[in-house]
Amino acid sequence: MIKRILNILAISILTIGPARAENLRTLFVNMPDSIMPTLTKSERMDFLDYMDSGMRARVRNKLGGESEMTLLQDNMLSVRTSQSGRLDMVLLGKKGGGNIICIIKTVSARYDDSRLSFYTENWEPVPVKELIEQPRFDDYLTKEALKSDSLDVLKKESILRLQSITASGDTLEFRYTSLDYIGEDADRFKSWFRTDPIIYVWTGKRFKVK
User: Taking Cα atoms as reference points, which of 80, 98, 96, 94 lies closest to residue 27?
Assistant: First the structure.
C-alpha cells in the first residue's frame, strides 16, 4: 500500500512538474486504455508495485485471464497480455530532447506476428513510415532465392507473410516467421530465407538498417 502511494505521488509530481521528458513508468500508467484494452490504469500500477516488491507481477485482466509484466527497465517493459499476446513498450530518445514511444504488439499462435506503432509523449500517434521503412518480403530472401527462376512461384505461394519484431535498447530485430504457411514446398524454399534478423538502429530521428 505504501509503495502504491509513493508510485502515485511520483507520477503526479512528474505529470504536473515543469516540461521535461516523461519517464517510462509515468507514460505506461497514463497509457490510453485503447492501446492495452484488457487492462486498467489501476492494474498497470499493480504491475509496478509487484515488480518493485520483487514479486511475480500477475493480474487478472478484463477477459478473466491472467496478464503478467515480465520485464521492467528504465527504457523498456514487456507485458504478457494473454496466453498468446505480448506488448513491448520502448522509449526512444529524440535528438533535441523528449521521447518517441515505440509499441510492439505480438500475437503468438502458430508463429509470431508483430505489429509496430509509435506515439508522442502525449500518446498522439506518429505514422510508422515517418520513423522506419519496414522490411519488404524480398529483404528476407537469400541471394539463392533472388537469382532463382522459381522466385515468382515462391511469391505466389507465400501469400501470408508474418514477421516478428523484438526490441533491445535502441535496436529492433525483424524475422520472417511464416515459412511453413507456404505449404508443401516449405522445405524446398527453406534455404531461400535468411536465418539472421534484419536489424534496425535508432538514430535519434528514425530507424535505419544496421
Answer: 98
